[in-house]
Automatic annotation (TrEMBL):
Residues 38-54 have a biased composition (Low complexity). It holds the Pfam family Cytochrome_CBB3. InterPro entries: Cyt_c-like_dom, Cyt_c-like_dom_sf, Cyt_C6. Residues 24-56 are annotated as: Disordered. It is found in: Cellular thylakoid lumen. It comes from the Bacteria. This is C-type cytochrome. Belongs to the cytochrome c family. PetJ subfamily. Residues 53-135 form the Cytochrome c domain. Keywords: Electron transport, Heme, Iron, Metal-binding, Thylakoid, Transport.
């Protein structure tokens, strides 16, 4: 009986961490070292994508805010609704980063809301661009 209680508590902790994990922003990730920003700005155009105002790329922002629920462009809450550009265009007419930002700002059931206080418009655009470029 004690073991069942421990297992149940562990499962609840994992679920709670997964649900709230999308909303948390660690201070370490919010402000990258100045050398990282300087390096990214001075890199040639063929290198990594330009960082956002926070100094993070769309990929880094996606991993920070979205990857918990959308690993590899999938969807852990509603598996049929992947982040595939083709599927999003067919299903919801999502074809540009601005469309993804609209969903982030006013999502449907099962998805956390990411307002401008949590993710700036610039960062949200970076995430949208990354999704469309990465998950065809």
């Amino acid at each position: 009986m004690h073991r069942r209680l421990v297992v149940t508590m562990a499962i609840l902790a994992l679920i709670t961490g997964g649900v709230t994990g999308c909303k948390k922003k660690s201070e370490e990730q919010a402000q990258p070292p100045q050398s990282a920003v300087t390096t990214a700005k001075s890199a040639p155009a063929t290198a990594q994508p330009a960082p956002s105002a926070t100094g993070l790329t769309g990929e880094q922002l996606f991993k920070q805010h979205c990857a918990v629920c959308h690993p590899n462009g999938g969807n852990t809450i509603t598996p049929a609704k992947t982040l595939s550009a083709k599927a999003m265009a067919d299903r919801s007419k999502i074809t540009k980063p601005e469309d993804i930002v609209k969903i982030m700002r006013n999502p449907g059931p099962g998805m956390n809301k990411f307002d401008e206080g949590m993710i700036s418009n610039d960062d949200a655009q970076k995430i949208g661009q990354y999704i469309l470029a990465t998950f065809p």
